Q: What sequence folds into this?
């Protein structure tokens, strides 16, 4: 019976890790928080036999670092491009609406469309709107690359510790 429970734990852990990794690419899934949760739950269910406090601290710090870098990059980009309140509100609304579709194209396009509409409402010119679109795309792709890299790192470290 122990083998069956252990095998089920491994299968569920692997499935949740795959979903967590996909979440680093698709923003509507909680990628890194899900990966962290899987690590913690695995540790608890195995009575921290292979996952120790140092590993949990490391993964927690990695996820906090990515979150802070993402936040700082967004704030710096908003200030650098002097995006108006309406541009930020439009991008936020577009992102929330886009999250419901869960396709990469829509998740990238709707925040851009929202930002452009917001900038139109604020009275900005066309050149500024193009800069806003370009920054959003570069920021989205850059952030995704970092999240994917950290996701791979967490999965790799997890496999190294548990296998």
A:
């Amino acid at each position: 019976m122990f083998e069956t429970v252990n095998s089920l734990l491994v299968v569920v852990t692997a499935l949740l890790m795959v979903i967590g990794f996909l979440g680093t690419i698709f923003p509507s899934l909680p990628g890194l928080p899900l990966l962290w949760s899987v690590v913690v739950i695995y540790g608890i269910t195995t009575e921290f036999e292979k996952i120790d406090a140092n590993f949990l601290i490391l993964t927690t710090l990695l996820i906090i670092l990515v979150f802070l870098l993402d936040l700082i990059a967004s704030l710096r980009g908003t200030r650098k491009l002097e995006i108006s309140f309406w541009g930020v509100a439009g991008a936020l609304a577009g992102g929330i609406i886009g999250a419901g579709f869960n396709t990469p194209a829509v998740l990238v396009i709707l925040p851009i469309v929202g930002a452009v509409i917001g900038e139109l409402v604020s009275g900005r010119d066309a050149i500024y709107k193009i800069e806003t679109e370009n920054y959003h795309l570069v920021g989205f792709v850059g952030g995704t690359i970092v999240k994917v890299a950290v996701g791979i790192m967490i999965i790799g470290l997890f496999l190294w510790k548990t296998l």
